[in-house]
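hey so u asked for the seq, here:
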Amino acid sequence: MEPDLSAFILAGGKSTRMGSDKAFILLDGRTLLARMLDLARQVTSNVHIVGDPAKFAPFAPTIDDIFPGCGPLGGIHAALRSSPADLNVILAVDVPFVSLALLSYLVSRAKNSDAAVTLPRAAGGFQPLCAVYRSSFADAAEKALRGGRCKIDGLFDQRNTLIVEEEELESAGFSPRIFRNLNTPEDLLASGS
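ran it, structure tokens below
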């Protein structure tokens, strides 16, 4: 367990394509939220959920968005603003195939870098919801949000981002399929649940 590390599960999405709250969808008999909380708690004891406190407070301490309705960037910003740690693992509630080994690998890469963000680029693009952020990234996020920009990819510039490419992940034993997320009932069926 890492002492100067926090983890945040982003669970504030609307789940419109799934038709019901993704956090409470069952996969192999367990909710996605329970799976992600268990995974995060293997990395650090400082685990929070970013989402509606009325819905999620029974499961873990919760953080509400400071900029509501701004999608994942709003959630990442709220997480980083509330975090006591410099390094922060950010996970979406709907990436249940991510492993402890992958998170440990990303945290290790982040600790050995001064980049504001350590994130994978695999499975067709950046994976900002399975990444490690330094608390300083909150400043760039807040500037973007105040400017009405909610798209996160534009904030990953070469100076402050450590990109872990798909080839590196594969050579370390991680398949790009680990980043599959569950957005629709069809995705859930295809996952074998």
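The first helix runs from residue 32 to 43. The first strand starts at residue 5 and ends at 10.
lmk if thats what u needed
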